[in-house]
Amino acid sequence: MIKSTFGITKEPFNRSEPELLSQQKEILKLIKIHSQHGGFSVIIGNAGVGKSVLREHIEKLDKERDTVVASFSQTMHSYINILKQLAESFKIDVPVKSLEKELIHTAYRHIKDRKVLYTLIDEAHLMDITVLRKLRLLFDRFPKKHNLVLFGQRDLLYYLSMNVNEDIKSRITYSENIFPLNDENLEQYMMRELDAVGLGHHTYDTASVELILRSAQGNLRLCRNLSYSSLIEACRAGKRTVTTTHVNNVLVQPHWRSHEELIKQQVKS
Ligand SMILES: Nc1ncnc2c1ncn2[C@@H]1O[C@H](COP(=O)(O)OP(=O)(O)OP(=O)(O)O)[C@@H](O)[C@H]1O
Ligand SMILES: [Mg+2]
What we know:
Blueprint: H1 2-6, H2 22-35, E1 39-44, H3 51-60, E2 67-72, H4 79-89, H5 99-112, E3 116-121, H6 129-140, E4 146-152, H7 155-160, H8 166-169, E5 172-177, H9 183-197, H10 206-216, H11 220-236, H12 244-251, H13 254-257, H14 259-268
Parallel strand pairs: 1-4, 1-5, 2-3, 3-4
Helix pairs in contact: 4-5, 10-11, 10-12, 11-12
Adenosine-5'-triphosphate binds near residues 48, 50, 51, 220 and 224.
């Protein structure tokens, strides 16, 4: 509907491989610098601030000749399942009982070939901490230049700060918060999305942009969802400019109410 109303070939706020925003770019730069030495990195941020998009970009480094990336998102997995996924990323096929030995062996081989090794774990705050501790023991036997990057919400910091997890925490060499964006950056994000598909900056009138920013409170996902849904509302009404009427049509929907909790949490932290 958006495409036919505006006569465009791609929808804004719906791109499959968006470029990183400046905060994400900076973190990626530092992760790469730390990757030369190895160690654990921890990236913390509230729901919807852009952790997984950053993780997807690091995954793409796997295409480069000198980098091997193993990545997990379904962290409800058991230790054995994670080992199997690691084996898949390392392209090895051995029986379960020799998995650990073979993974360590392959990791050393990659380092000898001057490759950089990343293991990424998204949603790490949902992970069973005993699995994480087992992984820590495994990675202790990996070459030093291996990098484990954990992405998670704030609970992850809480788990890591517990005494029993001191062994994991003491191995962290880099950690960073991804913060909610300020209004200026969020507006730039909206304009960048419009630019990317050839829509003018006045597609949203000034009052509607203000209302979107006020409602999203710096949260990228909420800003994205509200901008996209408001644009659909405008198209449904046969309009080519989004006004507060269209934004309000979205804000009154019941699912939007439930975001208020998320925003409250975010403002507190
Ligand atoms: N660089 C970017 N360019 C464009 N859009 C982005 C970018 N980063 C994030 N977004 C938007 O923000 C949304 C939320 O990002 P993401 O899924 O990475 O959040 P998250 O921090 O992983 O949240 P959660 O903790 O809930 O998993 C994405 O679906 C996307 O629409
Ligand atoms: Mg995520």
